[in-house]
Amino acid sequence: MHKRLMNEQVSVRAERPGEIDISSLARFTYSSEHPDHPLEHLIDGRYGRGGTHWASARPNTTERIVLDFEPPQRISHLVYEVEECCVERTQEVRVEVSTDHGSTYRQVLAQDYTFSPQGATFQHEELQLDLPAITHLSLIIVPNKGGAGVASLTSLRLFTSAD
Ligand SMILES: [Ca+2]
Q1: Domain membership flag for residue 39
Q2: How far is the CA of 12 from the centre of ligand 1 (A)?
Q3: Alpha-carbon Rg of the chain, whole angstroms?
Q4: Pick from 3, 48, 111, 163: CA 20 to 30 A from residue 16's CA?
């Protein structure tokens, strides 16, 4: 029998106006990455269900990822995704931004999402912002606000306004 499993439906970098090329404009600082799920997977253009993901190397630990922009970016829209198929847990993602090279941060988002193998397994979050001249964007990921598990993110996409 000749057989072949169909590919998962994974979007590959659909062009959308104003998308910020994070990989060439930001430098990353991060607290942990799993060897099989490195930080590169966060911005590899493979998102949606079944997309590649970044994950922490240690369970039940709050992780932080900081993007340092050069030059500073005007960010009008932020999208992130998380997929968790295997365990029931509540993950919180907090987004903080700085306009003074990381001296001070202002929180712009704190979002909980509860995953359940029998229910919700995929989170797609969109946030409208109007943030001129952002020098740093910080993601704080609390994997076990409820339950237990490993911090993970499938994708992070940033957009700038057209004008
Ligand atoms: Ca990905």
Answers
A1: yes
A2: 9
A3: 16
A4: 111
